Amino acid sequence: MKIFFKAYWTIIILIGIFFHTPSSANTRFDSLYNLAKNDTSTISADKALREAIQQEEPAWIAKAFYLKGYRYRKHAMYYEALKSYFKALKFYRITENITWQQYTLQNIALIYSDAGFVNESLSVYEDALVLAKKIKNLTVIGDIHYQLAKTHRYLKNYDRAAHYLMLAEKQDSLEDDQIGLYEIELERWAIASQRKDSTAVMRYASQIDGVQDLPLDYRMRYLNNLGHALLISKQLDSARVTLFQALTDNDTAKVNHEIIAEMYRNLATVECLRGDSTVGIELYEAALAFYDMNKSDVKLVNLIDLLYNIYHKRNIIQRSDEFHHYLADYTRNMTQLYEQVKKAHIQYQVQAATYKYESEMHEESLAQQRMWFYSGLAVTSIIVLVLILLYHHQTRQKQKVVKKVVEDIDSLLNVKRVS
Questions:
Q1: Whether pLDDT at 15 is above 60
Q2: Exposure string (b/e) for 109-139, b if CB count within 10 Å is 16 or more?
Q3: Chain segment 84-124, per-residue pLDDT in tens
Q4: In angstroms, what CA-CA distances link 184 with 44, 149, 189, 240, 346?
Q5: What are phi and psi of 117, to 5 degrees?
Q6: Spatial separation of the C-alpha atoms in residues 269 and 78, rounded to whole Å
Q7: What is the 3-state secondary structure (H, E, C) of the chain?
């Protein structure tokens, strides 16, 4: 009886080990991960990561690193974000999760873009596009086409930008994504504006309908683009009214700060061209307050440089010196960021090359295994076929012998009957 109870409790413990513990660990990780998603810092993400590492679950580790990367990116800690995303990518590759590999690559590309590494951003978007096409994720393919269009516009590859916009538009039309289609129109508008094609800019302005029904950010982007279009068309009074009303009639606190910065900047340029440089300078300073100082933005650098030159020419020494030091500090910070991101990109290239080599070796190994399997199958089939033929041949030979014997016996019996 004691042996029976001992065996019974051993089985119960084993069941607990194999079934209860992973479930409990899964619950703990999910709890920590959900907490981390609502925490703007990386503290909760670190706790989720420690739990994932302790449980040795690659899928959980990937999720935790991805979340850390997202948090670092939101805080403009780009180097830390890249390191976290690279680790997430490594574990997503281990688990062969192509869907999240492509999302991770898209985030890496966005960081490169924010840090001013536009060519590197382009190559990573192309890597993400390969994966999206591999699993036929049409929505993501459309998103990447749109990002590639924006990146090519930044590089002044306008024909390539137009090509990718056409591909993105095709996908958004299939999905009836009205917001996506509107973003494409805004991007076409931006290309025309960057080319200083005032006729095309005004044509795009007249083609966009239903602006008041759009979310606030999109509506403000439209009004900013319209104001800029009127500005480059030298319709200064109309540009002034459009931009001023947009900034005063809407709750700017709820709008993306980069859009507000661009609106103030365009309005400042209008005021300067109208002859009111004092108001123009105030508006340029207002625009500066809305820029993200952690981003390597050419427009931001140009604005700082512009304000420095304005104050320098007016011999306002204190403000001139402030902007001179401001520009020097910003340049120094961007140089440091440049070196960090450059180092990170080398790591990405090494990781990508290693993964590609391992994948090729794995595919080669699988191909060789398939070759041996099919070769073995072919040889086995031939052997079986030969054996079947031999069997049939031997059977026919035996039947002939038996038939001959039967015929001989019949012949003998006939001879005896005759005699």
A1: no
A2: bbbbbbbbbbebbbbbbebbbebbeeeebee
A3: 999 999 999 999 999 999 999 999 999 998 888 889 999 99
A4: 37, 9, 9, 26, 33
A5: -90, 75
A6: 32
A7: CHHHHHHHHHHHHHHHHHHHHHHHHHHHHHHHHHHHHCCCCCHHHHHHHHHHHHHCCHHHHHHHHHHHHHHHHHCCCHHHHHHHHHHHHHHHHHCCCHHHHHHHHHHHHHHHHHCCCHHHHHHHHHHHHHHHHHCCCHHHHHHHHHHHHHHHHHCCCHHHHHHHHHHHHHHHHHHCCHHHHHHHHHHHHHHHHHCCCHHHHHHHHHHCCCHHHCCHHHHHHHHHHHHHHHHHCCCHHHHHHHHHHHHHHCCHHHCCHHHHHHHHHHHHHHHHHCCCHHHHHHHHHHHHHHCCCCCCCHHHHHHHHHHHHHHHHCCCHHHHHHHHHHHHHHHHHHHHHHHHHHHHHHHHHHHHHHHHHHHHHHHHHHHHHHHHHHHHHHHHHHHHHHHHHHHHHHHHHHHHHHHHHHHHHHHHHHHHHHC
Provide the token pair at 72: 């670092």
Task: Return the closest-CA partner of residue 109 out of 100, 118, 98, 101.
Answer: 118
Q: What is the band of 296 on the pLDDT scale with cuts at 50, 70, 90?
A: low
Distance CA(12)–CA(6), nearest Å, equals 10
Place of tokens 């307050």: 289
